[in-house]
Task: inverse folding
C-alpha cells in the first residue's frame, strides 16, 4: 500500500475543495455587494424627491402672508416631485416582479403587430409634445407566445427613451420582422446618442448617462433594466448600437414560441 500516494491524493483533494470553497465565497460576496448596492441606490433614489418635498413645504411654512401665487407655484413643484416618487416606486415594483423566475411569466399567443400599434398609439401624445415623429414598419404579421404585459413594458420603455432622448423635429423608427424561430423589434432614433463607454452600463439599474439631464427629462434609470429583464425572461436578447450626435438603435430578439 503506497501511503505516500494516498496522502498526496488527499492533499490534492483538499486543496481542490478549498479552491472551490473560496470561489463560492467570492461569488456570494459579489452577490451580497450588489444587493447592498441596490438597496443603497433605492434608498437614495426614493429619498431625493422626499427631500425636495420637505424643502418646498418648509420654505412655504416659514413665510408669513405668502401670496396665493407662490402657494400655487410651490404646490405645482410638490406635485411634480410626488409624480416622480410615484414613477420610481412603479418602476421598482415592475423590476421586483421580474426579478423572480421565468415561472412568473403569463405566456399567451399574441399578435405582436397589434401589440406594437397599441403601444405606439399610447405614446403618441408624448411624441407629439416632443415634436418627434414615430413611424412603424412591419415586414410581416407576427404571432408569438409572450407575456403581453412584460413585453409591452419592454417595448414601451425603448420607444419612450427614443422619444425622450431625441432632438426637436427628430424621428423614431420602429420595425417588426420575424424568421422561422424569432421575431425582431428594432427601435431606431435620430437622438442624442450614447457614448461608447456608457453603452455597457445603460442596462444597469439606476445608471444614467447624464444624471442632471436625465433628471430634467424625468428618468428613473430603471427603464432599460426592466426592458432587458423582460426580454431575458423570454430567453431573448437586446442589443444597442449608438453614435453620439447621430442616434441610437436598440434591437430585440425573442423566440416565437416559449420553451420552458
Ligand atoms: P431613464 O429612466 O433615465 O431613461 P433608462 O434605464 O431607461 O433610464 O436608460 C438609462 C440611460 O440610458 C438614460 O438615462 C439615458 O442616458 C440613456 N439612454 C437610454 N435610451 C437612450 C436613447 N434612445 N438615446 C440616448 N440615450 C439613451
Result:
Amino acid at each position: 500500500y503506497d501511503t505516500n500516494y494516498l496522502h498526496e491524493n488527499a492533499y490534492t483533494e483538499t486543496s481542490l475543495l478549498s479552491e472551490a470553497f473560496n470561489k463560492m465565497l467570492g461569488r456570494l460576496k459579489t452577490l451580497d455587494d450588489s444587493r447592498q448596492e441596490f438597496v443603497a441606490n433605492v434608498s437614495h433614489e426614493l429619498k431625493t424627491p422626499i427631500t425636495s418635498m420637505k424643502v418646498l413645504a418648509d420654505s412655504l411654512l416659514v413665510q408669513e402672508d405668502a401670496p396665493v401665487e407662490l402657494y400655487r407655484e410651490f404646490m405645482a413643484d410638490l406635485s411634480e416631485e410626488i409624480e416622480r416618487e410615484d414613477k420610481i416606486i412603479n418602476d421598482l415594483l415592475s423590476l421586483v416582479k421580474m426579478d423572480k423566475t421565468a415561472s412568473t411569466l403569463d405566456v399567451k399567443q399574441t399578435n405582436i403587430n397589434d401589440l406594437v400599434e397599441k403601444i405606439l398609439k399610447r405614446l403618441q401624445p408624448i411624441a407629439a409634445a416632443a415634436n418627434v415623429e414615430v413611424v412603424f414598419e412591419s415586414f410581416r404579421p407576427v404571432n408569438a407566445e409572450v407575456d403581453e404585459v412584460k413585453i409591452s413594458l419592454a417595448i414601451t420603455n425603448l420607444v419612450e427613451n427614443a422619444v425622450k432622448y431625441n432632438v426637436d423635429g427628430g424621428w423614431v423608427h420602429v420595425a417588426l420582422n420575424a424568421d422561422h424561430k424569432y421575431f425582431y423589434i428594432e427601435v431606431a432614433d435620430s437622438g442624442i446618442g450614447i457614448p461608447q463607454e456608457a453603452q455597457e452600463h445603460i442596462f444597469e439599474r439606476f445608471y444614467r448617462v447624464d444624471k442632471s439631464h436625465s433628471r430634467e427629462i424625468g428618468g428613473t434609470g430603471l427603464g432599460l433594466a426592466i426592458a432587458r429583464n423582460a426580454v431575458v425572461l423570454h430567453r431573448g436578447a437586446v442589443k444597442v448600437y449608438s453614435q453620439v450626435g447621430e442616434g441610437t438603435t436598440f434591437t430585440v430578439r425573442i423566440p416565437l414560441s416559449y420553451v420552458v
Q: What stands out?
A: The two ends are 52 Å apart (CA to CA). The first strand starts at residue 108 and ends at 111. The mean pLDDT is 90.
